[in-house]
Amino acid sequence: MAIIGIMDSGVGGLSVFREIRKALPDERYIYYSDNANCPYGEKTPDFIRDRLRTITDIFLARGAQAAVLACNTATGAAIEVLRSEYSIPFVGMEPAVKPAALGTQSGVIGVLATAGTLKASKYLTTKGHFEDNVRIIEHVGKGFVELVENGELTGPHAENVVRRSLTPLLEEGADRIVLGCTHYPFLLETLRKVASDEGYPDVQFIDPAPAVARRLVNVLKEKGIALKDKNPGVEFLSSGPRENLESLAASI
Ligand code: DGL
């Protein structure tokens, strides 16, 4: 049986959980939303590492055999430290720069992420592998996390917020946009609408979640963690209010 902990600063990690559950439908999951401390984007790496230790301890107390940091910001700040301090495997987010760089026709790719992710050495290293061949333009998705936490995924206000961060990337010629924060895939309909309204209907948005789910499958196999739990399902935990977590979880 496998018990897998999945965490995010809030509901964003549900975009990753959705893919994990497709790949591994018969396991037992614990999803932890640290929404009392959301957003992580502007928090210090030390603060995020401490939160991740607390969350990992909660997972371990519930028997988790692996943990997924379904949060780019937490991955950038904490995954190396967690791997050195705990014996369970940790799977983190990879910004999808590679598929964007391989797919671009214009030679320009955009990355939308939090300020923390864009500063983290994990992202800077990934970027370094590709920036000789493509132009990489970054923008913080300012206000995106708050929209998703408030369940405001579409409508004129969401479009205005999205337009402010997306338009600069489109105007620079980016034809592939990496969604470098797990909250952002929930804004896909609005991102596509804004891109279309601005005259860029063909731009493609890239979500790394399916690749992370594949990685988890491989890690569980490598570690010999038996699959198919006798008691599959998911337990949702949070450090703050749960209404939006429950309603978004019911919709995925
Ligand atoms: N969903 C998160 C990420 O992937 C964190 C967003 C935030 O809390 O700022 O980066």
Shape: globular
CATH class of the largest domain: Alpha Beta
Order of helical and strand elements: EHEHEHEHEHHEHHEHEHEH
Cα radius of gyration in angstroms: 18 Å
Summarize the structure in words.
- α1 (14-23) packs across α10, α2 (45-61) packs across α3 (72-85) and α8 packs across α9.
- The protein is 47% helix and 17% strand.
- By secondary structure, the protein is α/β, with parallel strands linked by helices.
- Strands 4-3-1-2-9 form a 5-stranded parallel beta sheet, sandwiched between helices. A 4-stranded parallel beta sheet has the order 6-5-7-8, with helices on both faces.
- It has 2 domains: 3-93 and 209-251, Rossmann fold, CATH 3.40.50; 97-206, Rossmann fold (3-Layer(aba) Sandwich), CATH 3.40.50.1860.
- The mean pLDDT is 96.
- The longest helix is centred in the first third of the chain and has 17 residues, at 45-61.
- The protein starts with a strand and ends with a helix.
- It contains 11 helices and 9 strands.
- The protein has helices at 14-23, 45-61, 72-85, 97-103, 115-119, 121-130, 144-149, 156-171, 188-197, 209-222, 243-251; strands at residues 3-8, 28-33, 66-69, 90-91, 108-113, 135-140, 176-179, 204-206, 233-238.
- Residues 8-9, 12, 38-41, 71-73, 114, 117, 145, 181-183 line the site of D-glutamic acid.
Outline of the structure:
Helix content is 47%, strand content 17%. With 252 residues, it is an alpha/beta fold. Helix 1 (14-23) links the parallel strand 1 (3-8) and strand 2.
Topology:
Elements: E1 3-8, H1 14-23, E2 28-33, H2 45-61, E3 66-69, H3 72-85, E4 90-91, H4 97-103, E5 108-113, H5 115-119, H6 121-130, E6 135-140, H7 144-149, H8 156-171, E7 176-179, H9 188-197, E8 204-206, H10 209-222, E9 233-238, H11 243-251
Parallel strand pairs: 1-2, 1-3, 2-9, 3-4, 5-6, 5-7, 7-8
Bound molecules: D-glutamic acid (DGL).
